[in-house]
Input
Amino acid sequence: MPVAVLPLVPDLPPMLTTDPRDFLTRAPLAWSVIAGGLLALAYPPFNLGSLSFVVVAVALWISGLSQTTLPSWREVAWRSWTFGAVFHFGTLYWTGWVSIPGMFVMVAILGGYIMLVFLATRAAIARLGPAGIWTFPILWVAHEYLRTLGQLAFPWTNLSLSQVWALPLLQFAEFTGDLGISFLVVVINVCIFESWRLYSSRGWRIAVRYTVIAVLLLAVPIGWGAWRMASIVSRSSVRVAVLQGDIDSYAKWENNFVDQSMAVYETLSRAAAAQGAELIVWPETAAPMYLRSDMKYLKEVLDLSRELKTRMLVGTLEYDRVEGGGYLRYNAAVQLVDGFYRKDFHAKLHLVPFGEWIPFSNYIQVLDKLEVGGAHFSALDKYVLFDHPKGPFAAAICYESVFPDIIRRFAKDGARFFVTITNDGWYGFSSGPPQHAAHAILRAIETRRPFARSANTGISCFIDRAGVTRQVTHQYVPDMRIFDLPIGDAHEQTFFVRYGMWLGQACAGFSLALVAGLAVIHLRRKP
Output
């Protein structure tokens, strides 16, 4: 019986027979650009936060840290720096609206921080073997913590910010701070990375095991967080009004425009008082002068305070005289009560580098002579609480709300709620304003203190103790929002408020010990 001879199946093109994961190493710089761009989409306003659970794993793969023979230091450096720089460009491009050169310098530096994390991880893998990849989450959190320190501190792009859309997941930040969220995100990425790496050598069972671990690491905090949100009880509240004047950020400083600006806030204040506000909040530099020494406008706002019989918190400028002549100028918040200007004011604790001051100018006086816009304010290391019948509160000016430890210290000192005053009008409808507003969600959960946010051009809103955002305004429209802000017990303090940045400090200590140990071993092995 004749046997049919089937034609031979032609060889499939290499593209179809190659492990799909190998594509990531064929054009590593191009893939690094793509990965960095995808991670930027995880952040507000896009809020595709699920991307952050896999994109970092992709970046690790692109960097070649899965290979038996590790790539050179230079290759890891270029790939990881490209990933970090593109990621930061995608999240911080809007800073170029103020200074394009400054934006590129910042992106390059922040990309360099990411590069150092990858290089340290490569060193750990080279010495410890594949298990060295588990140092990566610790190194990553250490770098996020170190970015909160010093005069160039800028912890804006912590991975935790990519999860503000998933409130249940964020709730355990009351124990760890936002760095705990970042740590969890990176650990899940490493689990995914390991499942890819081990699939080729040890089969699908071990890959599934790591995938299950990743799912559990995500599911357990979400389940607990949903319960925690439902369990939060507030026994009192304070009715707060936040004003949004929509005053042009440049024109507001012109003498012939100040009357118009002040009239807008007077009108909004009257509307707030008519609705029973117990505190009326004006945004950052809403009174664009040294209010204490400007008799005309001081009389106007004091008369308004006396007439409305409502406490007012006003963003303005303040100053101190120094010995030998001269002044220290402050970006400040002041409280007006029944027609009186309270002596204690809050001056901004952490100034915007190159926007409000020149870093290190307190050590190198010649730097203070540089002209870069309004960069000649002084910071005042003084934590001031404002009194209120419902309990003391604190003000955070502009990007002070980005710093967990600043807000934590206010809460530890007794603040029962916060107001944030800001002017994000420089950045238009970019990613900047929604990112800025989202940081207050993290601070509210860490401290279990609610926030009232007053922004000159938006976004103004209220954030409760569980991180739920309410009464959100549109940008670039005059508005006033009022809300009964629920506040907790005076004695209540979260683990994070009591013990601070313990996770970041532990990770930084481990990382420094690791790098020092690897350096010593390397030097001892040299002939």
